[in-house]
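Instructor's aside before we start: the two examples that follow are unrelated to each other. I chose them only because their records fit on one page, so don't look for a connection. First example below.
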Amino acid sequence: MKTIILKLLILFVVFISTSSYGGWVLQYTGTSTFISSIAFPNESTGFASGWSSTILKTTNGGTNWIFLSSPVSASYSSIFFVDVNTGWLVGSEGTIIKTTNSGVSWQIQLSNTSTLLMLTNFVDAQTGYAVGYSGVIVKTSNGGTNWVVQNSGVSVNLLSVKFINSQTGYVTGDLSRILKTTNGGTTWESLVSGIFNNLGKLAVTDANTAYVPATDGTVFKTTNGGAYWVAQSSGTSNYLVSANFPSASIGYISGGNGSVIKSTNSGINWVSQTTPVTSELHWIYFINNLTGWSSGYNGTIIKTTDGGIGYPIPLAPQLMSPANNSSNISLTPNMQWYSSTNATSYHIEISTSPNFNTIVDSSTVTNTNYNVPSGKLNIALTYFWRVKASNISGSSPWSVVWNFSTQIDLLAPVLLSPSNGYVGTSITPTLDWDTMAIANNYTIQVSTLANFGVITDSATVIPTQYIVPNGKLQNFLTYFWRVKASNVMGSSPWSSVWQFTVLVTGISQTNGIAPSDYKLYSNYPNPFNPATKVKFDIPKSTPAKLIVYDALGRTVETLVNKELPAGTYEYTWNASKYNSGIYFIRFVSDKYTETKRMVLLK
């Protein structure tokens, strides 16, 4: 048998006292008998064992305990359940009993020993172990139908056994004895000598890591499968009896004078907790990091649901933004709420229904805001949201429910004027389109090309109209224009493309120098559609008329009828309201008359 000489390394750790309020609550068991052990296969259903054939059961987490009938008279020291129906009890004179119906009835099993059995542990429903006085270890591979005595190699009282899997397990006992097997108990190796303390009930978190409490308040820990053990100071001088680690970092140890200590960093630091009892707490068991029970003398069972800390549960948070009933909210909003006292985290839910039967997004965060990720929300929908606060003690009620509506998709603007295809706009036309309620601004483009390959003018404006600045457009040219809307969420598609033609009509003097003679020039262009220019010369001041006739000689329109000074003139005539055909333009003065033929071709 190999002996490993323990090298003690005392780690001095900070001892922190909890507040006067504790997280442990005394449960009523209806007995004053010593409660040696507790087993909870789930958070509601639990069993407890004790002296004087005591077997207790609860189906509501320990709020109420009832007595179960025992098939023998024995003092039970340990109970273990692999599921809510199947469990074993061990105790005095080698007693082992088993139930397969959640304690309704029990069957006596032959242990092949008459010594006191102190603790039992099962790997699964078939493979289990029990240890006891005088170095006794028994094993079953068939659910207890047969128990086989194993050779422990020691004669001291063995108090605790814990298996990680079917092959690897540890046993602790008096006189600092720690045993280990890696072959299912076929052989046992003595790991430690030199720890001059009686050892309590160990806790094992993995094949390499184990914790053993001792009677002087020390906690022994190994991280290499028992080859080396470190003595950790627990910060208390109370003798320690039972250890339990529900997770790798969080562990609890119970002991004398009603003591419970807790570590949240794998035993580096231990914090003393307040309990409602002063007698020894012989057993401790946690079903998760927060919910656990401890038992001991005088029929004691205590319970915590907050990890023994006793922090007040936080109040429901108050929501901040988006404001209730708000609209046009981003698809990735920042949800905000006020902090709740004692809260360490917050859980937010977003739903399309006020009863939250369909959750579109949820998250747990440690701060008081949350950015909804892209892809969670859709446009033009109403969403409901709520938040609750949590700490180690539990969660608050949900906040009040608020709602918000997401943005409506930006549609392409509707163009209004000038109407599509209009001829006759000024050089600085006003372009107008319909208002969109959720738009922040609009972008307009003007081009001589329908594909906007060349931009003549562009601008981003807030109002829904735009006056094209002077110098951008030219007379007699056709322009195409379009508009899109934008807000903080993005831009709409472009509107449909409309067109207009700049056509500035009327007379203008192109040259103030007096020509040598009267003259009427042929109009340009000719044929035309819909406008053409008529040019004429006046050598001296004279009354002048410019008249358009149709092919039948009827007056269509008098363009000029006034006295003009000497010079060269040009008149732009817009014939868009007339039909295609032959027209005549006649210039008349007191000294000169001339007519030209024009063709309007639409």
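Example two begins here.
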Amino acid sequence: MTKRVHSKVFKVQGSAFPKQGSGFRVQAFLLAALLAMAIPCAAAVPPPEKLLPSDTLLMITAPDFAKLSEIFKKSPQSQFWNDPAMKAYKDNFTTKWEEDFVKPLERDLGIKFEDYTGLLQGQVTVAVTESGWQGKEDQAPGMLLLVDAKDKGAQLKKNLSELRKKCADAGKTVRTEKVRDVEFLVISLSTNDVPPTLRKFFPQHARSRDGAEASEPAKSAQKQEVVLGQVDSVLVLANTVKAVEPIVARLTGGGAPPLGEVPSYQANHLSMFRDSPLYAWINVKSFLDITLRAAAAEKSESSSTPGPEMKPEKIVGALGLSALKSIALSYQDSNEGALFQVFLSVPESGRQGIFKILAPEPKESGPPPFVPATAINFQRWRWDGQKAFATLERTLNDLSPEAVSGLKWLLDTATKAGQEKDPGFDVKKNLIGNLGDDIISYEKAPPTDAAAGTSAPSVSLIGSPHADQLCAALKATLGALAIFNPQAGSPKEREFLGHKIYSSPMPPLPMMPMMAAPAAKSLHYAAGGSYVALSTDPAMVEEYLRSSDSQAKALRETSGLLEASQKIGGMATGLFGYINGAETGRISYEGRKKSSSSSSKSDSVNPMSAALPWLDVMKTIKPWFDDSLLPSYDKVSKYMYFRVYSGSATVDGLSFKLFVPTPPALRK
């Protein structure tokens, strides 16, 4: 017989907030989650894929939170934060965090968080399940928080008991419900029960009837419940009893088919989740199906509106989202570094729209010899321009014939303008028809004496089987677009090492002449080899044109780059990128120190605060981060290193990987 521990659960019923009061539902759930951190237990707990029901829409889990915590403590980021050189900065942040947030919230809740820090011992899972949700505004899907306290079960039981007493002493209505003979507590709350500290740091979307000003109209009541209880060593917290039922059933030895039996989940679990200390999964197909059905039902009940209407299912289909089954994310750690993966389950047979455009060609995508080692950011994408343009046309046509007409008008306008100088010019033939399947971009660090905020010089290279023809077509097209900005003038040209470098004013957005490019910004471009180089910095175009004669070290010769690339599938997946974290970190780090010494301490009210409440939140926490207390970069540079990423397409979907190697100074 399975051992059971009576569970105590809390049901939170809000009162008097508007139909769109989903903000309070989230606040109430967060509040209950904070209260519930006072709770732990012990017994073999099923893994999340066996614990969650098959109608799970979203799941984020740490199968062993204690193990994840140890991994984080050893990470370069944690070591950087705890370095003695960071003490002044860290102490300032910690003091502000404690005084402005933690202690006030503890007073609001009547608890001490330090009493509960040892309760996160085993699995910690956050999930969203259907639980009868049909996508309507007055409904909510099931929201769950599962915490396995392992051998801290007695403390969990004690915390629940104390919490129940505190609620009763505060005059809250407390009742109990049983789920498979397990007792749960149910507590009624209103929007005024959200702690003042949380109201300060999180935008308030609604006020309850009893908290509204006399001059404000009363808002309709809306019920919301939070269910809280304990089964063996597991804390179960949810927003409805219905969401709790399948979890309790599995914890007590029964239940319907679990998430692990869903085919799309199984494939992701085998390839990404088995050894991961932290992973997430989203059932995109089920979510879209529910929301589209709800939208269709709402449309059928409402009166029709005059004029053309874009149906949600048509938009979803045209963009290719209807073929997306799920999204999987995972994190893995080793002594060599950290690996992050994202997989979009969108089979090749049904791939269209944005996913067909994004899918890279499985070809060589590493840094060519001409990319210098001084590049701080590099990306190469084997992207077939002609196929992508054809897909874009089909996508626009599926979305709206008017959109295709607009694109055709723009191309025809550019063609006619170009034919004034070249009667045979045609944008689709001369420009689109000369696109290849290779796009390269890289940037270098700004000069050391550059003003703060100066952008890094960069260059983009567009591959073409006929680079000279593509460059000429680009010149004609940009010249044609000058009709939207007559003051800009025609493209200029000059000779450089046997090549012609063209300079054209940055064009405004088509059909939006008021959106002109920044003053004095020009686009410089030239054909060289099998690429057309483009940059707003002419020196970068010149550097590329003379790269064949350069004796400088190439990026692909960077120590450790080849080994790191093997962690993400190599350099022939179709998309490969490199970021010199040591150099980009220095630029960002020193920029923050400079800005902290020159920025004003203005306390003026931001006029956007009413529309964007989070701006006030950022203003509140800004003093926590005093960048003037940061040590010199040299003292912490050993924690910074490069990172690489890749993208690939298979018959099953699109995969993106990021690998962050452990800095050499930190390796064991």
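The first helix runs from residue 22 to 36.
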